[in-house]
Design brief:
With about 200 residues, the protein is of the alpha/beta class. It is built from nine helices and five strands. Belongs to the CoaE family.
Amino acid sequence: MSKIIGLTGGIGSGKTTVANHFHDNYHIDIVDADIVAREVVEPGSEGLAAIANQFGDSVLNEDGTLNRTHLRELVFSNPSNKQWIDNLLHPMIRQRMQQQLKMATSPYCLLVIPLMVENGLQSMAERVLVVDVSPDTQIKRTLARDGVSKQQVQSILKAQATREQRLAIADDIINNDIENGHLAEKIAELHRKYLALCH
């Protein structure tokens, strides 16, 4: 089985850019918690059926897919709804991630979990790589990318782990404040380091 390197970072830190670089340039397999989270609520899935059963058909779009906007409202308006969803989906997501990790064929694989610290999932990885940027950079990038209000970005930042909490679990750190010029060099260096650890 491949060695598992956990990859995390706050919103707007460039996690996806870093993960894609490993994948595109070094053919490293990626297991991404966000993608898995969408898979466990696809039409026909056990997850989606349970959600519709709990909250009624209003959480479904006409085409049978999950109405995420409506579900988000239900979750944010009521902590017990959030608890229920987390209890349902977290074990499913974790199980699906473990299955995908077992199927990885590259020498090491990246387990990308945005909320690794918040959900205490660093134990799923043998090493943790944190993509680190300043809060200012996070706000700027998220505003540019998602077209949301500054208040919304700040409330997302508040809900996520602090920079210090993330750095506390890091074995390796990529500082991604600078323009992507040095990113390729840093990733190449980590790639060599990770390959050495696999032997």
